[in-house]
Design goal:
Elements (H helix, E strand, L loop, with lengths): L1 E6 L4 E8 L3 E9 L1 H5 L6 H23 L8 E7 L3 H18 L3 E5 H7 L12 E6 L4 E8 L2 E7 L5 H11 L6 H9 L24 H13 L4 H29 L4 E5 L6 H14 L2 E3 L11 H12 L22
Parallel strand pairs: 1-4, 4-5, 6-9, 9-10
Antiparallel strand pairs: 1-2, 2-3, 6-7, 7-8
Helix pairs in contact: 2-3, 4-10, 5-6, 5-7, 5-8, 6-8, 8-9
The structure holds 5'-O-[(R)-(carboxyoxy)(hydroxy)phosphoryl]adenosine (KG4) and zinc ion (ZN).
5'-O-[(R)-(carboxyoxy)(hydroxy)phosphoryl]adenosine binds next to α5 and α6.
């Protein structure tokens, strides 16, 4: 079964072709980062308009790369939420129109399910069941994953997501959008010892998180006096350490309390090198195996949507082929 995957929930247009027998045949991404940079963040209306411009050329590109034609596609999977309403509607209407025209099914996919299952696309995929640490721009969640579609929320951020905290802190330090990668880069030249930031909810005895206080602590440090470049790097270093320490501790405690031995990390913050090295170190000591998506599939992409869609279709998911569609900008994963 050849599934076309479309991702358009935020500032990346992603298109991919996944074959249930042959695996990922091709995928292509267009990032809108350059377009939104001037505004310091994503402008929803511009995002929607750009998705419209990009979808057809990206689809052509993956068809050529995979050596397939439109007629070979058996189903279209699209991100139906969560995300920006207008941006989601572009992918959803494109999928519905294509499905109607070709007489094939269209399937709405949950964006976080795409992230969550993306490590299964790697050369050494994890086995079910596992604990998933989902760290994207809008979500920080710990999930127990028993199989495709069976997800139990164990804990989540009560305020800012880890990615959001990275982005806001980066802004406070005068770094551009998107902040996460820029802050991580600055932190590479930082040193420990000069600043001490809190480790929010580290000992809260539950699996919830809170990152907004950390951002406020950075704000206080920045407001005290103008910081030199090397001081900013030290502050970025300490911020990254604090986030990584909390994420690693809670993720491993979720694995332990669920008596599991496998942890899957997914979502944009999962690309953070310091988080990965810390996790590998502590998980190794605890006998826990950690799986990550391929680095290029950590942030938003169409491959994870095509793959999640194919898994749902194989499990008999409900589809539409009458041209109708719906999006859910707010959509808890456990309801997917
Ligand atoms: O999963 P994702 O691409 O999009 C959402 O679904 O939100 O995650 C984007 C988030 C942003 O907050 C971005 O700053 C963060 O992931 N991010 C990083 C890194 N790369 C992306 N945060 C820290 N370190 C990175 N290397
Ligand atoms: Zn995402």
């Amino acid at each position: 079964m050849l599934v076309l995957g479309l991702e358009s929930s935020c500032d990346e247009t992603g298109v991919a072709l996944y074959d249930s027998d042959g695996g990922l045949l091709a995928h292509a991404i267009h990032s809108q980062v350059d377009m939104h940079e001037a505004y310091g963040g994503v402008v929803p209306e511009l995002a929607s308009r750009d998705h419209i411009r990009r979808l057809v050329p990206l689809l052509r590109q993956v068809l050529v790369a995979a050596g397939r034609s439109l007629g070979d596609i058996d189903a279209v999977a699209y991100t139906a939420g969560p995300g920006l309403a207008g941006a989601l509607l572009v992918g959803a209407s494109f999928a519905a129109a294509l499905a109607l025209a070709r007489g094939i099914p269209a399937l709405p996919v949950h964006h976080l399910e795409g992230h969550l299952l993306s490590p299964l696309l790697s050369s050494t995929p994890p086995q079910f069941p596992f604990i998933a640490l989902l760290v994207s721009g809008g979500h920080t969640q710990l999930m127990k994953v028993s199989s495709v579609g069976r997800y139990e929320l164990l804990g989540e951020s009560l305020d800012d997501a880890a990615g959001e905290a990275f982005d806001k802190t980066a802004k406070l330090l005068g770094l551009g959008y998107p902040g996460g990668p820029a802050l991580a880069k600055l932190a590479e030249s930082g040193k420990p010892g000069r600043f001490k930031l809190p480790r929010p909810m580290l000992h809260s005895q539950d699996l919830d998180f809170s990152f907004s206080g950390l951002k406020t602590a950075v704000l206080t440090a920045v407001r005290e006096r103008p910081l030199t470049v090397s001081e900013k790097a030290d502050l970025a270093f300490e911020f990254q350490e604090a986030v990584a320490e909390v994420l690693v501790t809670k993720a491993l405690s979720a694995v332990k309390s669920s008596r599991m031995s496998t942890l899957v990390v997914a979502g944009g913050v999962g690309a953070n090198r310091r988080l990965r090295s810390r996790l590998d170190e502590y998980a190794g000591r605890a006998g826990v195996k950690v799986h990550y998506p391929e680095l290029e599939l950590c942030t938003d992409n169409g491959a994870m949507i095509a793959f999640a869609g194919s898994q749902r279709l194989l499990a008999g998911a409900k589809t539409r082929s009458d041209g109708s569609f719906a999006v859910r900008p707010r959509w808890p994963l456990v309801e997917a």
